[in-house]
Structure formats: structure tokens, C-alpha cells
């Protein structure tokens, strides 16, 4: 969830990866998904736990700091920018476009 503290994200990583339900080898140093970005690491660990625990909504709660996302917000923003550019070229949109991020 937006606004989750670094400490909570680390706790979520430790919980998910220590549970035995999530395979977190990929995010360990030297792994293909290793990152120093705590948000990316937490996202991977929490997602791996969710899938390892059986895809139940309550397995994504993480004391209120997790949520199920059905699409990739980065793709939505990219699509909105492309659509906005097309609409502007077609004269259907003003110069200013605002996006909620």
C-alpha cells in the first residue's frame, strides 16, 4: 500500500520469505531479481507468498500493507500517455493532460 514504511516492508519480506511458502531465492543478492529497491523486493516477496499460500485474498493483507493489484499501473500510465498523444494529434484533447499516479 502507498505510504507503507520501510520497516514494515522489511517485516513483510522477512515474514513472506521465512514462511516456507514463498521462494525468495530470486531476490537474494546475485539472483535475477535482486534489487536494492525495497519496494520492488517487497513486491516480489509478498507476491510470491500470495501465490505460494494459495491465491486467497487474506494472504495478501500483511497487516493492512498489502493489496491485490489486477493490472500493472506502469502499463496503465503508458497507455494513458499514448492515448493522450493520439487524441491530441487528432485535435480531441487540449495541451494539458493530468495523470493520477
Describe the fold and architecture.
By secondary structure, the chain is an all-alpha fold. The protein has three helices and no strands. The longest helix has 17 residues, at 73-89. The model is unreliable at 82-88 and 92-101 (pLDDT under 50).
Tell me, rounded to a whole number, the average pLDDT.
76
SSE string: HHH
In DSSP terms (H or I, runs of 4 or more residues), the helix count works out at 3
- What is the 3D shape? globular
Parts with pLDDT < 50 across at least 5 consecutive residues: 82-88, 92-101
- Structural classification: mainly alpha
Rg from alpha-carbon coordinates: 18 Å
Which strand-content bin applies to the residues?
A: under 5%
**Helix percentage range:** 40-55%
Q: N-to-C terminal Cα separation, in Å?
A: 13 Å
Number of strands: 0
For the sheet with most strands, the description reads: none
InterPro entries: X8, X8_dom_prot
Organism: Zingiber officinale
Pfam family, one: X8
Domain X8: 1-86
What's the short version?
The protein is an all-alpha fold and 101 residues long. The chain contains 3 helices and no strands.
Please supply descriptive tags for the structure shown above.
single chain, 101 residues, mainly alpha, 45% helix, 0% strand, globular, disordered C terminus, X8_dom_prot, signal
List the helices and strands and how they pair.
Elements: H1 6-18, H2 38-52, H3 73-89
Protein name: X8 domain-containing protein
Keywords: Signal
InterPro entries: X8, X8_dom_prot
Amino acid at each position: 500500500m502507498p505510504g507503507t514504511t520501510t520497516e514494515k516492508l522489511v517485516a513483510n519480506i522477512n515474514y513472506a520469505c521465512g514462511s516456507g511458502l514463498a521462494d525468495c531465492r530470486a531476490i537474494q543478492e546475485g539472483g535475477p531479481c535482486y534489487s536494492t529497491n525495497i519496494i520492488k523486493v517487497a513486491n516480489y516477496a509478498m507476491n510470491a507468498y500470495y501465490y505460494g499460500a494459495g491465491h486467497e485474498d487474506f494472504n495478501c493483507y500483511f497487516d493492512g500493507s498489502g493489496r491485490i493489484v489486477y493490472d500493472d499501473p506502469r502499463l496503465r500510465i503508458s497507455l494513458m500517455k499514448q492515448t493522450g498523444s493520439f487524441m491530441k494529434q487528432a485535435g480531441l484533447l487540449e495541451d494539458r493532460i493530468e495523470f493520477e499516479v
